[in-house]
Write a structure and sequence with these properties.
There is one protein chain. It is built from 14 helices and 11 strands. The longest helix is centred in the N-terminal third of the chain and has 19 residues. It is elongated and about 70 Å long. It has a domain of 113 residues: Roll (HIV Type 1 Reverse Transcriptase, Chain A, domain 1). A 5-stranded mixed β-sheet has the order 1-7-6-2-3, covered by helices on one side. Strands 9-10-4-11 form a 4-stranded antiparallel β-sheet, with helices on both faces. The chain has a two-stranded antiparallel ribbon with strand order 5-8. With 348 residues, it is α+β, with helices and mostly antiparallel strands.
């Protein structure tokens, strides 16, 4: 899958197994919930053209049910293998922030991130796109090759046959983190901000908390879900444009099949794609669903409404697409105070 976050693949597979088990648990008794979700999301016209629609509704229902029918599920034979899973203890899980590099794209990266590379290029009289096979430190090369080979084996990148690339791979360390893989696309001209794109930078932790607190002040029983679209530390699951080519430390050329987070305006494009997905269903949830890049804030007047809206958002995100929710980085059916206590990294 190309997910280099420590333990990321194991958590992903565990959650897939949980959803399958919860689906079996739900269907072990008479339960109209998944069909009510179909009605809520007006799926009838779609069912005739896409047979997977109903299956995806059941999966979305089960994914959210994990946070609503937790005790019954874990007490059953279906939930037995997952009784010690941290997914269900959201308070404890919130204390363990993800070990992931920044999602920020090149134009917004702090200049300090590039200091070592720029100094190395200056000393060796190289430009930003010149070969670096003979000047990169061995520690950088080890990190770059680990990531490149993982991404290649997962089918995330492929060999590029082009006379020129747009960027060069490097390794750098953000504050309090070890060396990680980055792409220097700064040799490109600064991208023009298209009118169709909105800057998601202001939609940060403070924006999410303010929106939740305002809604909670109006609705005394309000409950919230902060649902995060799955992405790997180095790329989003959206299709690449074809311009995100790069050279590694050995001078080999690579092309991305999915959108690298270092690509200029990657967060802008992601925000646009997710916003467009949610906008299709605005007639259903109005302003009770907000988008902030790849994070979706669901605001329910009570727990039941939060559940139905969360199911709908999960289905709308996952149906007929390659996108999935990352419930290990999401929080479901919580109050506004819980969101306010979260470390900012969870809502950034």
């Amino acid at each position: 899958m190309g997910d280099l976050e420590p333990g990321g693949l194991g958590r992903y597979m565990e959650h897939k197994s949980m959803v399958t088990a919860m689906d079996k648990f739900v269907m072990s008794d008479i339960n109209t919930g998944p069909f009510e979700l179909c009605k809520f999301m007006h799926m009838a016209p779609l069912i005739q053209s896409e047979r997977r629609i109903v299956d995806e509704a059941f999966q979305a229902y089960a994914a959210i049910a994990l946070f609503y029918q937790t005790e019954e599920f874990l007490a059953s034979e279906h939930g037995l293998p997952f009784r010690s899973s941290l997914l269900f203890d959201q308070e404890e899980r919130a204390k363990r922030t993800p070990d992931r590099r920044s999602h920020v794209s090149n134009p917004y990266m702090p200049a300090e991130l590039w200091t070592d590379r720029d100094e190395l290029l200056r000393r060796n009289q190289r430009s930003k796109l010149d070969p670096v096979y003979d000047i990169y430190p061995i520690e950088w090369r080890k990190r770059i090759r680990t990531v490149v080979m993982t991404l290649y084996k997962a089918g995330i990148i492929q060999s590029a046959y082009t006379p020129q690339v747009k960027g060069v791979a490097t390794a750098a360390a953000e504050p309090n983190r070890a060396l990680d893989f980055y792409l220097d696309f700064r040799a490109q001209s600064r991208p023009k901000f298209k009118a169709v794109l909105a800057d998601p930078t202001p939609l940060n932790r403070d924006y999410i908390v303010k929106a939740a607190n305002k809604f909670a002040a109006q609705h005394g029983s309000a409950r919230f879900s902060a649902l995060r679209l799955w992405s790997a530390p180095h790329f989003y699951p959206m299709q690449a444009s074809g311009n995100e080519t790069f050279a590694d430390d050995r001078g080999r050329y690579w092309a991305w099949r999915y959108m690298p987070k270092d690509s200029p305006l990657s967060e802008w494009n992601t925000h646009k794609i997710v916003s467009d997905m949610m906008e299709q269903y605005r007639r259903i949830w109005g302003n009770q669903v907000r988008v902030a890049r790849d994070l979706i804030l669901v605001m329910g007047k009570d727990a039941d409404e939060c559940r139905r809206l969360s199911e709908g958002v999960t289905w709308a995100t996952q149906t007929r697409r390659v996108y999935e929710m990352d419930f290990w980085r999401s929080f479901v059916n919580v109050d506004a105070g819980f969101l306010e206590r979260l470390h900012p990294v969870w809502l950034s």
